[in-house]
Structures are given as C-alpha cells and as structure tokens.
Amino acid sequence: MRIFVTPCDGIGPEITAATMDVLKAADAAFSLGLDFHFEETGFASLEKYGSTLRDETLDRARTFDGIILGPQSHMDYPARDKGGVNVSAGFRVKLDLYANVRPARSRPFLNDAKTMDLVIMREATEGFYPDRNMYAGTGEFMPTPDVALSVRKITASACERIARQAFLLAMKRNRKVTAVHKANNFILTDGLFLQQVRKVAAEFPEVTLNELIIDAMAAHLVRDPFRFDVIVATNFYSDILSDLASELSGSLGLAGSINANAETGLVCAQAQHGSAPDIQNQNIANPTSLILSAAMMLSWLGEWRGLPQFEAAGADIERAVDAVLADPASRTRDLGGNTSTDAFGALVAGAVQSGDGERKFASA
Questions:
Q1: Which of 11, 45, 84, 357 allows an S-S link to 77, with CB 3.0 to 4.6 Å?
Q2: Domains along the chain?
C-alpha cells in the first residue's frame, strides 16, 4: 500500500515524524506492506520551486492509496500569484476529497471534557470558501476600493453525496443524523442543502433525521453534545462546529480527521489543528491529532478495500493513543504533561508494537 507523505509547515515535520513512528510500528505488527513517499509542500516547496503546491505534486499524490498531509501556514503565504497556494484546499478540491470526516470523542480520564461521541461530516470542496468555488479566479472580489464581495457556491450533487456518506455512517453507529443549516436566511443555498439531505434521508428509513439552525446547534453542542451522533453540514458550518466539538471533548490537539472520496477510495489524513509556528522546532507539539488521522486513514483503506488487517491496525492505534493519554505523565505540554513530541510518538508506537494498547486502556 503506497502512502504519500508531505509534512508541510510549522510543527508539521515534527508531528509527521511522530506519526511515521506509529505507522511503522503498525506496519510491522500487522504486516500492512506500507511504502512511503515523501514530498515537499508549503514553505519548503515555495523556496525550492516557487509555489507552495505544484500541479506535479497533486498529480503524483493522486496515484497513491493514502496521503499524510501536515498542517499549513496559509495565512503567512504570499499572494496566490506569487506562489502562495492553499495546500489543504488544493488537495481537497483537485483530488475531489469531498468528505471531511471529523470525529469528536471524550475520554473519561480527561475530567473537564464534555461527554460526547459524535462525527461531523463536512463537505470540503465548495461553500463559503472563495478558493474552491470558482472555475477561474476566486469567489472574493472588490468592485470598488471600499466594497468587498464573496460568492458562496452550493451544488445539489455535492450536498447529496456528503449527505449519503453521513447516512451510511449513521447506519454503522446510532442511526441519527443532524443536518445543520441557516435556511431561514440562506433560503436558496441552505434550502438546496436541506432538499438534498431530505432526499437522501428517504433512502434510509431506519435513520432519524433532525434539522437544526446553526446558531441553535452551537448552543446545543455546548449544552448537551451527547445527544448527537452524526452531524452533516456545508463546509463553513462544519469547520466551526468541528473545532468547537473537538475542544469540548478534550482538546483540538486530540481530534483526528480524514478527507476522502467514497467513489475512488483515495483518502488523506490531516490533523484538525493548524501549523502552530510559534512552537515549531521545540519538540513540544502534541502529535495525537495526526496520529489518530493516520489511524482513520488505515481504517478507511481497510474498509474500502476489504483488508481487515488495516481496520485492525487503525483500531489498535486508537487504543494505543488512549492507553498513553490515560497516564498523566505521558501527556504533552498542552495536556498538562511534559512529554516531548517524539517521545509521545515513541510511546504510542511502543504500545502498538507490544500489542498491549487495549489491555493498558482497559486498566486505566
């Protein structure tokens, strides 16, 4: 199985290195046959090639089975015409990785976390984001110096396919889908989204569909997140809600995420958080999010290709992460511990290699 790896910016190289330690341990323990190919994106690519993301890079990535994408410092990139391409958007749009799957699960040993076990299914290729909703140029423009406009694109096809993935996932979980919208104001765009969700819902009579306005959803997520199972929404709403849910469940640094295409099977593991350039090269970043994202990638590949050893490896990495996090002394600085980035990765890799992640977690 061929995996394309690009660490990108900030803490990306550090958390990617820790993730690679874990993946190599899983590769050995489960005989996965992983073959890794490394390539530069972000500032390293800009310095070397004049662009943060080259077309050649995307063309190569498309030929792989899975992708590990490190965080980017997009806000610090130069203008697009100077080579500052949004790396994350490039992978999602150009490779049509439309399903951004973002789970948020609380852990009982993190006492301040809200109890929850939900998944946010985010449409990732259109919406309010101006760098992915036009054929040429961007969706933001200024007709005069004191007027700025932005175009939002919502298509029936994109809404239908993300809704279908939400309902398929709900069938494997608790059979509840919550569709988030603002159709009382965005009558046409969010109205089209709801129309497609209801159309798909009719194919899944076993699944209960609830609809919530985005502001009410934020309030309910804070008040009682345990009531939710699978949440589906357009790009912008899901982006905000997934950060909120992850922080409520313990920390944004504990949240895994994949971008996937259910038709081609291509999947990209990507941490939910940013590049944190203020702590780069200090070996203090928490690599959990990217490690869990890599575990999700393995599980996705296992399910999509019918490879049970990949699903088992993904589940084992998750158990190993929980086993390490259950010990306060093993946590990174953001969680109140002093464990370094590479040491945390080594601890998780060790738990995977020894095969005792489940046993450790069960006794914690």
A1: 84
A2: 1-105+250-364 (3.40.718.10), 125-248 (3.40.718.10)
Considering only the C-alpha atoms of the chain, give the largest distance between any 2 of them, rounded to a whole number of Å: 64
Could you count the other beta carbons within 10 Å of the beta carbon of residue 10? Answer: 25
Q: Could you tell me the pTM of the whole model? A: 0.93
Q: What is the pLDDT of residue 356?
A: 57
* Catalytic residue annotation: 129, 182, 215, 239, 243
Per-residue b or e along 276-287, where b marks 16 or more CB atoms closer than 10 Å to that residue's CB = bbebbeebbbbb
* Cα distance between residue 345 and residue 333, in whole Å: 14
- Cα angle 66-25-295, degrees, rounded to a multiple of 5: 40
How many Cα atoms are found within 13 Å in the side-chain-facing hemisphere of 146? 0
The C-alpha atoms of residue 245 and residue 119 are separated, in whole angstroms, by 9
Could you give the C-alpha distances from 229 to 97, 128, 173, in angstroms and in order?
A: 22, 25, 7
Dump strand ranges (E) for the chain.
Answer: 2-6, 35-38, 66-69, 99-105, 117-123, 140-144, 147-150, 176-181, 208-213, 230-233, 258-260, 267-270
CB atoms within 10 A of CB 242: 26
Place of tokens 């061929």: 2
- Measured at the CA of 25, the angle between CA 318 and CA 274, to 5 degrees, comes to 55
Beta bridge partners of 211: 179
Return the H-helix or E-strand segment holding 32: none
| C-alpha separations of 172 from 12, 59, 194, 229, 231 in Å | 32, 33, 22, 11, 14
The confidence score (pLDDT) of residue 134 equals 85
Query: Taking Cα atoms as reference points, which of 74, 104, 32, 96 lies closest to residue 267?
Result: 96
Q: Which of 105, 90, 163 is nearest to 321 (CA)?
A: 105
Instruction: Give, for 323, the enclosing helix (H) or strand (E).
Output: helix 308-325
Q: Name 291's bridge partners.
A: none
Which residues does residue 127 pair with via DSSP β-bridges, in sequence order? 153
